[in-house]
Amino acid sequence: MPVADSSASGTRSLGCCSICPVYTAARRAIFVNERPGRGVYTQRGKRSVTGACVTALIAKAEAHDPEARFGERIAENQRRVFQIAYSVLGNSADAEDAAQEAFLRAYQKFASLREAEKFRPWVNRIVFRLALNRQRDYRRRLARDTAWQVTETPVMVDGAKNAEQVVMLDRLRREIERLPEKLRSVLQLSLVEEMEAADVGAVLGIPAGTVRSRLHAARKLLLEVMK
Amino acid sequence: MKNACEKWKDQLLEAALTGSLTAGLEEHLRTCAICSEEMNNVRARKARLDTLLPLVARGSEPSADFRARVLAAAGLPVKENVHGRGGCGR
Questions:
Q1: Predicted model pTM
Q2: Is the minimum CB–CB distance between A111 and chain B shorter than 8 Å?
C-alpha cells in the first residue's frame, strides 16, 4: 500500500510500502542529503522530498540491482516492443515470441548499457529486426511447403471486431505487404502507439522528416488500392 | 472516372489525406459530377483506412505473464514489480 514518508510532513507519497528497499534507501538519504538543490529541503523546520529526489534515489538503488533494473525495463517497454513485432507479424503468438527473444538478446548486453534512456531505441531496433527475420523465414517455409498449391499467403488476423473487419484487415495486411520496403517499414513502425516520427527514424536510421514523407506516401498508395 | 479527369486523380487522394482542396480541384469538382462522386468515395476509403490501420499494430496486448516469462527465460528470479504503476502490490 502506498505510504507517505512519516518524517516528511506534508510530502508526496513514495509509492512503496515501508519495507521496500527503495523506500528504505529514500528514508536514509533524506537524513544524509539534507540541503536545497539535492532534492531534499527544509520548509518551516520540516523535511520534504521532491520528485527529483525520489527519482534519483530509485535510480541509485537500482544501480546496485541490475536484475531488478532489467525487470523494470521489461515492464516499461513490453507493450511497445510487442506491438512493433505485432505490426510486422500480425498475430499475438509470433509477436510475443519475437518480443521475448528481443528482451533476452537485450539482457545479454544489458550490464554494459550505461545510459538507461538508450534502452528504448535499442530494444526497438532489436525487435524490429527479429520480427522482419521471422517474417522472411515464415514466407520461405510457406513457399517451400505449398509450392504445389496455387494460393495466396494466408495472413492471421487478431484484433478485428467483426467478420467484415476481419476480411478488410486481412486485405489491408496484404496490401501493406505489397508496399515498397522503405514505405512498409515506416508505416508498420508508425502504427505502434508511443512511436513518434523520431522514434521510427531512430529504428530505421533516417530523419524524422523522411519518416513523415514516407508515411504520407504509404497512406496514399493504400488509399489508392483499398477500393 | 473519365479519361479527361485522370489528371485530377492524384489531387483527389491528396485532398482526402490532407483534408484541403486546391483552388483548381475545387473549381473542377463544382462542374464534374463524376469527380465529385469519386471525391466522396476516396473520403469514405480514407475514413475506413483510418479505422483499420491502428488495428494492424494495436489489435492485441502481450499476455499478463509476459514479464515473468522473459525473466524466467533469462534465468532471473521473478519478483514483484516494486516500482511499477501498482507500487509494491502488497
A1: 0.69
A2: no
